[in-house]
Amino acid sequence: MSNAPTIEWRDYDAPLLSPILQAALDNFVKGGFHGTSIRQLAGAAGLSVPGLYHHFASKHAILAEIDNLAMEDLWQRSVAALDDGDQAPLARFDRLIECLLLFHAHQSDLAFIAFSEIRSLQGQHREAHIAARDRQQKLLDEVVEQCVADGSFSTEFPRDASRAITTICTGVSQWYRSDGELTPADLAERYGVICAHAAGLPVK
């Protein structure tokens, strides 16, 4: 890996979704995928139903595109975070955890739908999501194992610790609110410490 990130992984100023997809996401968050009609999606996007079908073949195609963009954005940010600076295992772990927490705070609605509506994805789209999820998990598994190998972490169960940490990070999308006590940066700092201790970082 090089030491220069390919993207600004802490930057969330530019919207990820098009207006049509953002309107769909907002409706999926409110009513769920199955509880939202194609007519509701069209109306939220300021389109007729035929107009919406001009852009997407089905409601499922809209969900699949939202899911694909979410998983790819998280992957690109994660790879950039790992690449960005000190390559010591603990430093890489800290940046990856910061990246995961920032994503699930800044993109809480997007992350929530990507997680909760796996059940609604069909065929190749479901398979693609599972492959992307497993690829993402492997990044963290490897970093935790490296931290155990060099003595930074003391856990006897690195894979279990890694999955517990993933649960902590993804769980943020279920409760985080931008008008709450913590900014995304504050949350990343606080929960980053919690995640490190979950892997056996010695308490100083």
Descriptive report:
By secondary structure, the chain is mainly alpha-helical. It has a domain at 58-198: Tetracycline Repressor, domain 2 (Orthogonal Bundle). It has 9 helices and no strands. The longest helix is centred in the middle third of the chain and has 27 residues, at 123-149. The chain is elongated and about 60 Å long. The relative contact order is 0.13.
Q: Any key phrases for this structure?
A:
204 residues, mainly alpha, Tetracycline Repressor, domain 2, 9 helices, 0% strand
Task: Write a brief caption for the model.
The protein has about 200 residues and is mostly helical. It has helices at about 20-30, 40-45, 50-55, 60-85, 90-105, 110-115, 125-150, 160-175, 185-200.
Work out the helicity level: 55-70%
Cα-atom radius of gyration = 18 Å
- Kindly name the structural category: mainly alpha
Q: What is the arithmetic mean of pLDDT?
A: 94
> In what range is the share of β-strand residues?
under 5%
CATH topology of the domain at 58-198: Tetracycline Repressor, domain 2
Assembly classification: single chain
Biggest sheet overview: none
CATH superfamily of the domain at 58-198: Tetracycline Repressor, domain 2
List the total number of helices.
Answer: 9
- List how many beta strands DSSP finds: 0
End-to-end CA span: 31 Å
Q: What's the CATH C level of the domain at 58-198?
A: Mainly Alpha
Topology pattern, helix = H, strand = E: HHHHHHHHH
What general form does the structure show?
Answer: elongated
